[in-house]
């Protein structure tokens, strides 16, 4: 019997991008259920909560933070958390989501609204981000400052990938967490600067899974 798999997802979410790449790595066929920034009614009905990504596997809802372990249980090969590397992979995944993503997000946040097709969704996004981060025009004005703070993190990832295809020499959760953290940069249409050659190659490699 074929598993029925759905992923409630949102393109601007780094955790969603990470989950999509993990499913691709595992070779899992799934139905993508786009979720709007301002309307989570369908997701609430399916899972009784409103956080994305949410994986629904044969009717069972799997929360965003449980997805890697769940996938390794139901599809053990290839593993996201190989024996001997699990702790390091989790730590690097956390760094990607909690540290790298914030540096990326500050740069691109004012470029996100055009990625929404719904004008209400665009308005809600800008309103919510303004409330949490400050005036929109100030965020735009500080872009150069934010870029200066981002480049050292791109350099760190580039150095991690020197002489190797994957962060830990084989694909692991570390790759998908850090890729998720970088992903808002690509979502708004930016390209990885050529000076970060290793990072650019790795981004392309994960995108092609």
Structure characterization notes:
- The chain has a four-stranded mixed sheet, sandwiched between helices.
- The longest helix is centred in the middle third of the chain and has 23 residues, at 86-108.
- It folds into two domains: 6-74, Glutaredoxin, CATH 3.40.30; 86-207, Glutathione S-transferase Yfyf (Class Pi), Chain A, domain 2 (Up-down Bundle).
- Helix 1 packs across helix 8 (173-187) and helix 4 packs antiparallel against helix 7.
- It is of the alpha+beta class.
- The protein contains nine helices and four strands.
Text of the CATH class of the largest domain: Mainly Alpha
Instruction: Write down the oligomeric state.
Output: single chain
What is the N-to-C succession of helices and strands?
EHEHEEHHHHHHH
CATH structural architecture of the largest domain? Up-down Bundle
How many angstroms does the end-to-end distance come to? 25 Å
CATH topology of the largest domain: Glutathione S-transferase Yfyf (Class Pi), Chain A, domain 2
Helix and strand content put the structural class at: alpha+beta
Shape: flat
- Counting DSSP H or I runs of 4 or more residues, the number of helices is 9
Instruction: Tally the beta strands.
Output: 4
Topology:
Layout: E1 5-9, H1 14-26, E2 31-34, H2 41-47, E3 54-57, E4 60-62, H3 67-74, H4 86-108, H5 119-133, H6 136-141, H7 143-160, H8 173-187, H9 197-207
Parallel strand pairs: 1-2
Antiparallel strand pairs: 1-3, 3-4
Helix pairs in contact: 1-8, 4-7, 4-8, 7-9
């Amino acid at each position: 019997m074929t598993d029925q798999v759905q992923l409630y997802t949102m393109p601007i979410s780094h955790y969603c991008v990470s989950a999509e790449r993990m499913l691709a790595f595992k070779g899992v066929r799934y139905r993508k259920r786009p979720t709007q920034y301002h309307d989570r009614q369908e997701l609430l009905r399916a899972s009784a909560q409103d956080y994305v990504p949410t994986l629904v596997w044969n009717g069972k809802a799997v929360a965003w933070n449980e997805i890697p372990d769940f996938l390794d249980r139901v599809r053990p090969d290839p593993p996201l958390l190989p024996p001997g590397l699990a702790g390091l992979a989790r730590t690097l995944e956390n760094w990607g989501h909690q540290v790298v993503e914030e540096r990326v997000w500050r740069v691109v946040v004012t470029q996100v609204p055009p990625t929404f097709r719904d004008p209400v969704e665009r308005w809600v996004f800008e309103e919510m981000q303004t409330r949490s981060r400050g005036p929109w025009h100030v965020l735009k004005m500080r872009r150069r400052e934010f870029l200066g703070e981002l480049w050292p993190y791109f350099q760190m990832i580039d150095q991690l990938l020197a002489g190797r295809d994957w962060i830990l020499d084989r694909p692991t959760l570390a790759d998908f967490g850090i890729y998720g953290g970088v992903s808002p940069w690509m979502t708004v249409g930016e390209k990885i600067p050529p000076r970060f050659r290793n990072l650019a190659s790795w981004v392309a490699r994960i995108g092609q899974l």
